[in-house]
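This is your field. Have a critical look at the following sequence-structure pair:

***
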Amino acid sequence: MRLRHAELSDLPEIQSIYAHHVLHGTGTFEEIPPSVEEMTARFTAALRRGWRWLVAVDDSGVLGYAAFAQFRDRSGYRFCAEDSIYVRDDVRGQGVGKALVTRLLEEAAKCGFTQMIAVVGDAENTGSIGVHASLGFRQVGVLRAVGWKFGRWLDAVYMQRTLDAAPDSES
């Protein structure tokens, strides 16, 4: 497995991975998969702002992708990022997500972010919660019944980690 910055040519595979999670998972609260064109727009908008998308690849193609963006658009959040990680279904549980998050934390710190937020869709998403916890994220809150998908209410788990380039912080 190799990690690298995502390229435009990766977007059809990235879109396919994300579409699977939209249609079959609760890690995202989107219910209609965005098109390749929409994913391209999201990708190019992120790059214009200096943010990164990463892919994990091997000979079979893109295994997973990760991205970060500013947590909220207001200027006061300019040092706080939010991550997104999605792994191809046939390689889940094999360390792809953890490798992507590890590299993403480094990339976000290089871009001047001092905090990383993970908003984990579905409190039962123990895989994502576990990966983030293993990398030093701590749970800072749960928003109860804020998402509706597959006929049920879902919680969102908020996790946070200070990035290596940031000063020590308890908040």
About this structure: DSSP finds four helices and seven strands in the chain. Helices lie at 11-24, 36-48, 96-110, 126-134. The radius of gyration is 15 Å. Residues 96-110 form the longest helix (15 residues).
